[in-house]
Each structure stands twice: as structure tokens, then as C-alpha cells.
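Internal tracking record. Fields below are filled automatically when a chain is submitted to the structure queue. Please do not edit lines marked as system-generated. If the sequence contains nonstandard residues, flag them in the REMARKS field before resubmitting.
Queue: standard
Priority: normal
Entity type: single polypeptide chain
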Amino acid sequence: MPTYIVLGMHRSGTSAVAGMLDRLGVRMGPKKARPDWVGRHWSNPMGHFENPDVVWLNGRILGYDGTGVHESPRWDEIPERARRWAPEIDRILRATEGGVWGWKDPWSVLTIEEFLPQVRDPRFIFVFRDPLQVAQSLFRRDGTGPEESQRIAARFATQLAKISARHPEIPRLELQFEEITHHPSETVARLAEFAGLHPSPEERRAAEALIVDEASLRLLARHMAWWGLATYPKWLAWLLARDLRLGRHSVPALWRNASQELIGAFRTVI
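SYSTEM-GENERATED OUTPUT FOLLOWS
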């Protein structure tokens, strides 16, 4: 069966596309996923729709410590690091594949070449957004400076172009951020046609409902940020337990994670 891989820069609409695919019948999460796999958060109130197993694996390959989107010298070590994690790539893909399925994680733009040799019947869905808008969104969420965020956006755009040029044989669909947010019904129709799906009217409406107006989205984000601030100690305990479970013992990384969540939530509230 085809594997639908959503590729695009952070803050470019990849979550909305992954959510639409999931609502249309493409399994974007793991098998027997927990109800919270969608990953709703003040930074993305409708959900991230990321398979946590793939996110975990990308984090290991990239040496990512979960402190937002920032440049890293480890990006130049991806092929070497991926070779060490090749058995895990195969294990996770074999455990997750089946039926109509796929995944989304913006970091896959940097790692997809390491996955492709083990992906069966891949199909690409490229998602694009103006780099300046991406930079502004990264600043609001992660505090990433304008110059750094623009360099990151440029690197991701270059990598997407390389992926497209290297694999002309792989079917692909290209979507723009404005199309997704302003014309959700047309986007849903294009996704369904590309994936060969025949969704019911209810499934189509569920997919379209993931796109809400900006005012409603900000209000929902504020409510979730308030809740995040109110339960911050509980979140901090979860973060510490998670990092210890994953073998991370970096105090600076933990501090960056904790402070970024706090600052981001305050920024969203005000």
C-alpha cells in the first residue's frame, strides 16, 4: 500500500494537511494509538498529527533535544548518524506500515533520504509557505531570531527542491499554505483525489473542520496556554520523567525546554 509522507517547513501547514489526511482515512499515527497522539497544544490547537515513533526516531538522528526550531551543527552529520539508527528506521517502519498510512514530521525534510530506501511505495505531499511568514511564526512560538529562522527556512526550501529533483519517479502533490487555510474544501478534494480515497460527506466535513478562522484559533490557543500555565508544575515533572526515560541527562537542554514552554505560553496569553 502507498505511504503518504507530508514534507514541509515547520509552521507551514503540514499539521493541517496531516490532520486532513487522517480524517479522510489515511492512518497518520501509530497502530493502536493513544487518544492523545494528535498532540493538541497552545502552539497548534488543532493538533500536530505526528506519529510519536517517527518523531522520536528523527530526534535521535538529528540529536534534537526538543528546544524548538534552531540551527544545529548536527544537521551536517545526518547521513553518518542515520547509519547508526538504520535498524530502528526499519523496525519502526515495519511496525507502523499497513493499510492506507503515512506520517508527518517537519524534521523529515532533513532525514527523508535516510528513510526512503526502506519505505514501500512512497508518495510525497509537499507543503509550502512564504519564508518570511514562517520566520515570524517561529519567533512567536520558539523565539527564533529573524536571521536564524530565515536561514532555516532557506535550508528547508533547498532540501525540498533537492528531494523533488532526486526523485521524479515518486508521485507528489504540492500545496500552498494560503490554499490550505483559505480553501479547505478544495484542499480536501485534492488530497482525496491524490490518495485515491472516496470519503463520506461526514469525513470531508471533519477534515475541513480542522481549518478555523484566525480569531477562533487564537482564542483556543490562549485558553490552552492559560491551562498550560496553570498546570506548569505537572508538565515540568512529565518533561523530566520523559527525558530521563529517553536517556537525556542534559540540564541545559532541560532548562531550555522548560523556559521555552513558559515563555511561549506567556507570549500566547498576552
